[in-house]
Design brief:
This protein is of the alpha+beta class. It has six helices and 16 strands. Strands 5, 6, 7, 8, 9 and 15 form a six-stranded antiparallel beta sheet that branches. The protein has a six-stranded mixed beta sheet with strand order 13-14-10-12-11-16. Strands 1-2 form a two-stranded antiparallel ribbon. The longest helix has 19 residues. The model has no long low-confidence stretch (mean pLDDT 96).
Length: 293
């Protein structure tokens, strides 16, 4: 029998709580739900009003993994949805606005991916993202070198950058922006990637060409396109262990000397939140957003 729980007045069926989703650690679906419940205070503000794409892995990362953009069948009527412009027509996507919606979505076993705009202003970017993806034998250590250069470059344009782990092998740089379309932000991000490659030709790369990537950090600027999404802050990832896309301090970035220094699982987040709070909270303040040059 599927247990029913009540969250802020909403009844939610939670299934297979004892199912092991991360065999390397024995981390269960019940622990996934517990993680999202405890991270909700910092996670929800970064999801709210942003149509969410789900990367689902109901049988764990070693099972079937699939991407869902449209509202899933069986979505409760109280879950907020919104029409979103697509290349061909429109689609309807979920907006995770509150704790009941978060727990319902977490029960689907999912990574949360969001656009760089809110549903009320589709295609008008309020965030810039640069995804630093290392090609082996490069690691997050090399990503940190590139991130520090990009931080200074953005600061020169009056834009403050923040960092988080990708929850995989790389690093994400985020910045609040205003007054620009997704296309304009994408063009600016590409310019930054090109400049990074020119400044650090042995380390940074702005092209996706796989033959060029070994030992370098690909500065992926393309996720600023209006149709693209990026793993949200604090989301769990479909990896061997319950890695989290975790915000990090610039001191941690500067002092990173080994890949495991910037690798955090669900169990690491509670103490980090006690020590740092939400390191990405400034992104939620429009007054701290920068203007593109």
């Amino acid at each position: 029998m599927t247990p029913i729980t009540e969250v802020e007045g909403r009844r939610i069926a939670l299934s297979n709580l004892e199912k092991v989703l991360y065999p390397a650690t024995g981390f269960t679906k019940g622990e996934v739900l517990h993680y999202y419940a405890t991270a909700a205070e910092v996670l929800l503000p970064h999801l709210r009003d942003r149509p969410v794409s789900f990367l689902r892995y109901p049988d764990g990362p070693e099972g079937q993994v699939f991407f869902t953009k449209n509202v899933p069948p069986g979505t409760p009527e109280w879950v907020t949805t919104a029409e979103v412009a697509r290349v061909a027509g429109v689609g309807r996507m979920v907006c995770v606005q509150d704790l009941p919606s978060l727990m319902w979505a977490a029960n689907l076993v999912t990574e949360f991916h969001t656009h760089q705009w809110v549903v009320q202003a589709q295609g008008v970017a309020d965030r810039l993202v640069l995804d630093l993806d290392p090609g082996a034998p490069a690691t997050v250590v090399e990503c940190c070198e590139v991130a520090l250069w990009l931080r200074e470059r953005l600061a020169a344009d009056g834009i403050e950058a923040y960092a988080k782990t990708s929850g995989s092998k790389g690093l994400h740089l985020l910045a609040g922006v205003r007054g620009s379309s997704s296309e304009q932000v994408s063009d600016y991000a590409r310019q930054l990637a090109v400049e990074a490659e020119k400044a650090m030709p042995r380390l940074a790369l702005h092209r996706m060409t796989r033959s060029l990537r070994p030992g370098k950090v690909f500065v992926d600027w393309s996720q600023n396109a209006a149709r693209k999404t990026t793993a949200a802050p604090y989301t769990l990832r479909a990896r061997a262990r319950p890695w989290v896309s975790a915000p990090v301090t610039w001191a941690e970035v500067a002092e990173c000397e080994a890949p495991d220094r910037l690798a955090f699982t669900a169990s690491d987040l509670a103490p980090r939140l006690r020590d740092h709070g939400d390191l990405l909270a400034p992104l939620l303040d429009p007054e701290r957003s920068g203007l593109l040059p």
